[in-house]
Design brief:
This protein has ten helices and three strands, in the order αααββαααααααβ. The chain is mainly α and 268 residues long. It folds into two domains: 34-78, no CATH class; 81-267, Triger factor/SurA peptide-binding fold (Orthogonal Bundle), CATH 1.10.4030.
């Protein structure tokens, strides 16, 4: 998505089905103008009979009954720009969904999921669309609160990612695997940082605390020392982090649900 369209500190899973993703990735929308210019040329330069013929070819090609490819660019552009959902007046394009599905598929395969199963493909599409909708809701909320991200912050995040992955070459390989261009990466990171800024603000307002009872519940629930776990004090920090993460996820879920109830989300 563009400006009319998340793993920095807290992984946010905005929806779960058969495939999980820790980072919500937005996509950029590519506007194609070739089809429009072709249409103007045809309408302005040929006779009425030819226009009617081309109209028939267009219909047949769209239905897969003709392979003339005269209108291939137009059809591809229309399909890419077809709205699959509308979030408070902002379209989520089919192109964005397609790219999101491809990225989810790559992640699923990396986790050993059989993506050839129909139920997996359906689950991936459902999750991919839900992620795009939830991300757009959070992005809009961040903007409404006056939050913003600078180019310097994006640059810093990219450098951190390079370091985390093991260098620029590794990053480029990952991007190629996901079919992502440099501009798309910058847009996604900007969106990630914007949403993270919103969540940081929300979490601060909630003033999340972890009680001793909650720590003990997690430790005992895992079996404690009797199950071979290290002493409680040795894993206390990890348990507290787990409890905080769980609470943060609940807060995000509630926030998204509120944004949906207060806004307008239409799936086409």
């Amino acid at each position: 998505m563009s400006d009319n369209e998340t793993e920095k500190k807290t992984p946010v899973v905005v929806e779960e089905t058969e495939v999980k993703e820790d980072t919500t990735v937005g996509q950029s929308t590519i506007e194609a103008s070739t089809g429009i210019s072709m249409m103007k040329i045809y309408i302005g330069a040929i006779l009425l009979v030819a226009v009617v013929l081309l109209g028939v070819l267009f219909k047949l090609e769209k239905e897969g009954r003709s392979s003339t490819n005269i209108f291939g660019t137009i059809i591809a552009s229309q399909e890419a720009n077809r709205s699959v959902a509308v979030v408070n007046g902002t379209d989520i394009k089919n192109e964005d969904l397609t790219k999101s599905i491809e990225q989810f598929m790559e992640l699923a395969r990396a986790q050993g999921v059989d993506t050839s199963k129909e139920e997996t493909m359906v689950a991936v599409r459902t999750q991919a669309l839900e992620v795009l909708i939830n991300t757009e809701l959070l992005r809009q909320s961040a903007i409404e609160k006056g939050l913003s991200v600078t180019d310097e912050e994006v640059d810093e995040r990219i450098e951190n990612i390079k370091e985390e992955l093991g260098g620029e070459e590794v990053l480029n390989e990952r991007m190629a695997t996901l079919g992502m261009e440099a501009d798309n990466l910058r847009e996604d990171i900007k969106e990630e940082l914007l949403i993270q800024a919103l969540l940081d603000q929300v979490f601060a307002e909630e003033a999340i605390e972890v009680t001793e009872e909650e720590v003990m519940a997690v430790y005992d629930g895992a079996g404690g020392e009797e199950a071979g776990l290290p002493p409680l004090e040795a894993v206390r920090d990890q348990i507290e982090t787990q409890v905080v993460t769980t609470k943060e996820q609940e807060i995000v879920d509630e926030l998204i649900q509120t944004l949906k109830e207060e806004g307008e989300v239409e799936i086409n």
